[in-house]
Amino acid sequence: MRIVVDWDRCTGMGMCESLAPDIFEVDDDGSLILHTEEVTQDQEAEVREAVAACPTEALSLEGPIET
Amino acid sequence: MTRLVVVGASLAGLRAVEAVRRDGFDGEVTLVGAEEHLPYDRPPLSKEYLAADESPDTRYREEETFAGDLDVELLLGTPASALDTAARTLTVGDRTVSYDGLVIATGAHARTLPGTEGIEGVHTVRTLDDAIALRAALRGGARRLTVVGAGFIGSEVASVGRKLGLEVTILEALETPLARAVGERMGRALTHLHRRRGTEVRTGVAVDEVVATDGRVRAVRLADGTEVATDVLVVGIGARPATDWLEGSGLTLDDGVVADETLAAAPGVYVAGDIARWPNALFTDVAEGTMRLEHWTSAAEQGGRAARHAVDPASAKPYETVPYFWSDWYDGRVQFVGIATGDHVEVVAGDDAEGGPFTAIYRAGGRIVGALAVDMPAEVMKYRRLIGKRQSWDDALELAEQRRQQRAERAQGASA
Ligand SMILES: Cc1cc2nc3c(=O)[nH]c(=O)nc-3n(C[C@H](O)[C@H](O)[C@H](O)COP(=O)(O)OP(=O)(O)OC[C@H]3O[C@@H](n4cnc5c(N)ncnc54)[C@H](O)[C@@H]3O)c2cc1C
Ligand code: SF4
C-alpha cells in the first residue's frame, strides 16, 4: 500500500507526524517530508489514523499491503 | 443492527457515515442535516474563503458520492426537532425516522449579540451562508471592520480584514484575549500578532449597544460611552452547542450532550464533534470533569468512533485524545495541542515578547500537558506525542534541548 499526498492541499499541519512519526515529518518551513511511501502491515493502523486526522484531507492510500 | 441514523450533516456526521461504510457495514444509513448544503468544511470560512479573490468550494464530497459509493440516504434542509430514545425515533419535519443506532453530531451555533437581529452589516461566521454574506460585506467598499471578541475566529476575520486593506478594531471583554484557551501569558503574546499588523485591540471593554442608522450598523457604543464607528461588525463571541432540539429527550444536557468515555449518551445513542461533552481519560488526573472541544480533528475522529460504536456497541472503547487546533492569523499560523491548564508555561524556542515565532509548553501534575507554537510548524506535533504518552516534564525539556541543538546545527549548516 502506498501513501499519496495531494501537495496542493497539504499545508504542513503535522497531524500525520504526531500519529506516525516514522513516516511523516514537517520541517521548519512547514513542508511535509515523507520518509517512506510504502506502508507495511505494522504501520497500517497508524497511517490510517493519520489519513483520517489530516485537516486538509491531503492524504490517501492506494493499493494493497505488500507482504 | 440494521439502521444507522446520523443527525448533523457536517464534519462529524460525514466521517460517521464514511467510517461504517469503510468497515463494511451493510445496513441502511441516513444522514439528516438542517442546512440545504452538502457537508462542507468550516475552517476556510474565516480564512481563505474570505481572503481569496476567488472563493474556494469547501464541500467535502460530491452529491453522487452519497448516493453511489457511500449508499447513504441524505435528508437535507430540515432539522431534526425531537428525539424519543425509548421508541428509538426522531422527528424530522413531518417524518418520523426510526433507528437502531444513532449518532448526534449537530455541532454548535454562533452566539449573537442580543438586539442585533436584522441589522444590516452585523455578521457571525459559522455557516457557508454566513461566510457568503460576510465576504460580500468586506469586499463591498467597506472601510472599517470591528470585531467583537478576540477569540480565534474573530482574530482570523480581523487578519483577513487587514489583508483586504480595512481599518480593523477588535473589542474584547477580558483583559487578556484568549486567556481561557491558552493562558494569560500566551494570550498576551498572541495579542502582539494583531498589534504588529496594525489591528487595534481594545481589551477589558464592554459593548453596550450596536448603533444603527436606517437599519444599517454605524457604530458600537461601549459601556464608558465611547463610540467606535464601523461599516461592518463581526460578532465572534463563541458558539453554543445545538442542543435545543434535545430538550425533553431525557439526554443529559449541560453545555453540550453529556456522554460517557465511549461517547455514549443513552443506549444506542452516541455523540460526536462540537456537541459532545465527555471525559477525556488522558487528562482527568490534571483537569477534573468532562471536556467539550470545538476543533476539526477531534470532530472528525469522534464522528468515526461514535458511528462504529453505534453499529456495534459491544466493541465500544474509551475515546481519548490530545486536542489539536490551528488558527491562521495574517501570514502566520498558531497551533495548539493538549490543554492550557497547569502551573507553569515555559517558552522553549523563539521569543514570545514580540509575538513570535516561538514555542511554549505547559506543565501540570509534573508532566507536559500542552504546547503552543506560533510560526514554528516543525515543533508542536513532536510535543503532542509526549503528551499522549503522559511523559514527564523532564522528558519534554529534554526534547526541547534536542530540538534547540538541531536548529542550531541547521542554522550553522545554512550559513556555512
Ligand atoms: C469559521 C470557523 C473556523 C474554524 N476554524 C478552525 C480551525 O482553524 N481549526 C480547528 O481546529 N477548528 C476550526 N473550526 C472548528 C471546526 O470547524 C468544528 O470543530 C467542526 O466543524 C465541528 O464539526 P461538527 O460536525 O461537530 O459540527 P458542525 O460543523 O457545527 O455541524 C453541525 C451540523 O449540524 C446541523 N444541525 C444543527 N442542528 C440540527 C438539527 N436539529 N437537525 C439536523 N441538523 C442539525 C448544522 O446545520 C450543521 O450543519 C472552525 C469553525 C468555524 C465555524
Ligand atoms: S496532517 Fe495533512 S496537512 Fe498536515 S502535514 Fe500531514 S498531510 Fe499535510
From TrEMBL, chain B:
Keywords: FAD, Flavoprotein, Oxidoreductase
Location of the FAD/NAD(P)-binding domain: 3-303
Required co-factors: FAD
GO molecular function per UniProt: oxidoreductase activity, acting on NAD(P)H
Matching Pfam families: Pyr_redox_2 (PF07992), Reductase_C (PF14759)
Domain of life where this protein originates: Bacteria
PANTHER family given in the database record: APOPTOSIS-INDUCING FACTOR 1, RIESKE DOMAIN-CONTAINING PROTEIN-RELATED
Protein name as it appears in the record: Ferredoxin reductase
Source organism of the structure: uncultured Actinomycetospora sp
